[in-house]
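Obj.: predict assembly geometry.
Materials: sequence records (below).
Method: joint structure prediction, all chains together.
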Amino acid sequence: MSAVPQVDIREVGPRDGLQIEEPIPTAAKLEFIDALVATGVRRIEVTSFVSPRAIPSLADAEAVAAELGRWPGVEFSALVAGMGGVSRALTAGVRRLEYVVSASDGHSRANVGRSMEESIALIAPIAERVHEVGGHLEVIVAIAFDCPFDGPTPPERVADIARRAMDSGADALAVADTIGTATPGRTTDVLTRVIDATGVKPGLHLHNTRGQGLANAWAAYSLGIRQFDASVGGLGGCPFAPGASGNIATEELAYMFEDSGITTGIDIGRALDAARLVSDRLGKRLTSNLLAAGGVPVPSGSSATSDAT
Amino acid sequence: MSAVPQVDIREVGPRDGLQIEEPIPTAAKLEFIDALVATGVRRIEVTSFVSPRAIPSLADAEAVAAELGRWPGVEFSALVAGMGGVSRALTAGVRRLEYVVSASDGHSRANVGRSMEESIALIAPIAERVHEVGGHLEVIVAIAFDCPFDGPTPPERVADIARRAMDSGADALAVADTIGTATPGRTTDVLTRVIDATGVKPGLHLHNTRGQGLANAWAAYSLGIRQFDASVGGLGGCPFAPGASGNIATEELAYMFEDSGITTGIDIGRALDAARLVSDRLGKRLTSNLLAAGGVPVPSGSSATSDAT
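Observations (raw structure tokens):
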């Protein structure tokens, strides 16, 4: 319809951003989700259905899911790590699921207590179960660059898991730089292999732990990738590195694209508002540089704040 | 000689990084410079010869310059803003100068009390003076994207100033995103125009104020740009935005390139050491994400620190 290029940003703050934080009340999460919806984002990964002992801050997944009818225009999804989570999510009415498979045994065992192959073998039954109720399953290949336990992930392994995921019934794919070590060269390599192996352009889930996130996103855009995960303020972090950055920041990603002439649908000023809201609720300074700078120049977007002195 | 692609990083921490900070003793600067030399970097912008009232933290430019013979393999340069600074720098024995021209009247008047055209008119006499003693003059076109006073900078103006600088005897060019508002799309546009107008591939001076710095550097690399300014730890900042990031961080830039298979000559572990040193001396937390994360994965460089748990 339009000649203006566009990308699709999925907000993952309520899930990936909050998962390592101290729990906040469900009402505060709903207020956060409401602020996110106001940014114009149309896809939000809203929680995960995983063990409440492992991730206490997302123990209220059912309570959050029960309220999602408030925002009818938004596509909500939830992360799952196994069949138990799938059942919970479907029972709670969530129909778009992200199932994570780690591309290393070390991370898979640490994260879900299963080998990588055992996790891959679950894709087909999960897809079947999700499709029975008309749902949509995205498989996220995590640890797609480096594993904190096993070292570098062979890129051909990522492509192989992606191919097997599609063969097992996945509806969509994403590639995740779970610990934030990817760089543009390796991002290009891994994504090219995944596209070649599957014919699918995966989404990309990036962390900014070593400052590389936006450069990776730009390199991926140059390859034709159009779906990106992000969280306002760069919410989240790494449990192993205090003060480390979390996901790439929604407002920085949106500014990169919008100012480069690529539509995101995100209102940057409202993304900053949502970042400030969750920063206040958590009592924690977020790591987004754009948030610290206070805004973007006026000409780049009508709703952006000015830093003119 | 080699098929391995490479880039050339100029460390600007002692100049751009320190200029807005409280003054530190000359001895501490020399210790910092020594730590920078140990990173393997071969070009350092070491100070500026400007008004000590305007920039008190660089008032010791002559004292710093007098000690540079300690490090014979390194190419030191200094920034100047007018003929008085040129005379001081040459008298102090510095032979590589960067002369800054703002691409807006508002910034030019605020920064040096001259119009943009008056600053451009000084290029020819400065080049003549520098060349009389066998020196080298780089002209940096500052405010190449947006001006905090005048709004967006027309990209054709940047190209025009670059062309006039080369016509006036400049030996090299750089383009500076002084306030950190550039994005990959506009970086590509401005650099393409400068290259088309001059036949010269300029260096690129980036700030990470809105998180875009490395994405811009990657976009510029894709255009054939091979010279980049950076400062360890992302030292520096914006006087108008407390807590805002400064220059792109040397260690993040080096990691981006090295891990992508592009040689920088920078030892990332030693760059982190230099960042920690200056952070201690300033009593200030720096904004580099890689510094907060504590290092890069082992496989990316033999001297890099590990974050394996």
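Conclusions so far: Chain A touches chain B through 53 residues (CB under 8 Å).
To do: check interface contacts against the pulldown list.
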